[in-house]
Design a protein that fits this description.
This protein has 99 residues and is mostly helical. Helices cover 88% and strands 0% of the residues. The longest helix is centred in the C-terminal third of the chain and has 45 residues.
């Protein structure tokens, strides 16, 4: 019984830590994307030829930051879901069956 309680506490701690990591990754990705976009728009040249070449670079950098972060967030959320399902099945249900 003590081992089961320790495992339950460990899994809950892992879920809480991963939720904090999710928030940090999301915050980082949004701030980095906005900072890169702001830097690019501020330092963009005003004449047409150079601006059009730089515009593609400026517009492609935020998705290059956001898309990998979205995949990382998705992976972490799947881990949290699996841990939550494990807790539900083996720790919170009385007979061990899926609720």
């Amino acid at each position: 019984m003590q081992l089961k309680l320790e495992e339950h506490k460990y899994l809950n701690d892992q879920i809480m830590n991963h939720q904090k990591i999710l928030l940090q990754i999301f915050t980082f990705s949004v701030i980095a994307a906005v900072a890169v976009l702001g830097w690019g728009l501020q330092s963009a040249p005003r004449n047409g030829a150079e601006a059009s070449e730089l515009a593609a670079f400026i517009l492609l950098l935020p998705p290059a930051i956001l898309i990998p972060c979205a995949f990382i967030i998705s992976s972490i959320r799947k881990e949290i879901f699996v841990w939550g399902a494990y807790i539900t099945v083996f720790h919170e249900s009385e007979d061990g069956s899926w609720i």
